[in-house]
Design goal:
This protein is an alpha+beta fold and 233 residues long. The protein has one domain: Jelly Rolls. The chain is built from five helices and 14 strands. The protein has helices at 16-19, 45-53, 157-161, 211-214, 224-230; strands spanning 12-14, 35-38, 56-63, 67-68, 71-72, 91-97, 99-106, 112-118, 122-125, 129-134, 142-149, 167-169, 175-177, 188-190. Strands 1-2-3-11-6-9 form a six-stranded antiparallel β-sheet. The protein has a four-stranded mixed β-sheet with strand order 10-7-8-14, with no helix packed on it. A two-stranded antiparallel sheet has the order 4-5. Bound molecules: 6-O-phosphono-beta-D-fructofuranose.
Length: 233
């Protein structure tokens, strides 16, 4: 399933109750899970040991298509805190199946970026960017993987207090500004960047064991050029 050999453990699921506070329509109802997160996976004990020795975690997330009262189904949205060097922890995603739309927003809200990605694409979330993943389709399940530091907890406060990201991606194609945000720039597009500017090439799982390729996840302060180039249009 989703390119994963063997059984998956029971997932953590997000339901409509947790998602209502961040939806364009906070009264939207839905039965059953909206998306499933399989966290801290490895295909072998050796891979798991390597990941944890390097303070990293490999997760899978599965987001079936859903129209939530006119809005595409999405993840809740969160920021990452700063590491001991004072730089936000980044993250790397890979689309395994389906299509993903990553909606990024800088903490100072001066930059809002949309990245459309398809199977095989790797997308790096730079330090200081909050992120939401959208499944912008009516009929395809989105399966994606991520590797991220184990050294922090995701921060949801900004997304909850502002009732979602700066923009909502609606099923009619509209990108609607969230009225809870003051003045924000319009959304610009960027490309996934796999294989360019220092973004590794996939498959993401094959990078487990490659300390050089993944060290930006715990030591982003050593990779400022990568992050400067990353979100150029
Ligand atoms: O925590 P949220 O915003 O629901 O997003 C879920 C995503 O974040 C992760 O926790 C990784 O940051 C994944 O497990 C999952 O894809």
């Amino acid at each position: 399933m989703f390119g994963w050999d063997g059984e998956l453990p029971p997932p953590t699921v997000r339901t409509i109750n947790e998602m209502q506070p961040v939806l364009a329509d906070p009264n939207c109802a839905h039965e059953g899970p909206l998306y499933c997160m399989y966290r801290d996976l490895a295909q072998s004990d050796a891979d798991w040991t390597w990941l944890h020795a390097h303070k990293l975690r490999y997760d899978l997330t599965v987001i079936p298509p859903n129209n939530l009262c006119g809005e595409w189904v999405k993840t809740k949205g969160h920021y990452h805190p700063r590491n001991p060097a004072g730089v936000g922890y980044p993250e790397i995603y890979e689309v395994l199946e389906g299509t993903a739309r990553y909606l990024l927003q800088s903490l100072d809200l001066l930059d809002i970026v949309m990245i459309d990605a398809r199977a095989g694409d790797l997308v790096v979330i730079p330090p200081g960017y909050g992120h939401v993943t959208i499944n912008p389709t009516t009929d395809e399940t989105l399966a994606m993987a991520n590797i991220v530091s184990t050294e922090f907890e995701s921060e949801y406060g900004e997304y909850i207090s502002r009732r979602g990201a700066a923009y909502f991606a609606l099923c009619n194609g509209e990108i609607r500004k969230n009225a809870r945000y003051p003045r924000v720039p319009s959304v610009r597009s960027a490309s996934p960047g796999s294989g360019h500017w220092g973004v590794p090439k996939g498959p993401l799982y094959s990078l487990i064991g490659d300390e050089k390729a993944l060290s930006f996840l715990n030591y982003p302060e050593r990779f400022s050029t990568l992050f400067e180039n990353l979100l150029r249009g």
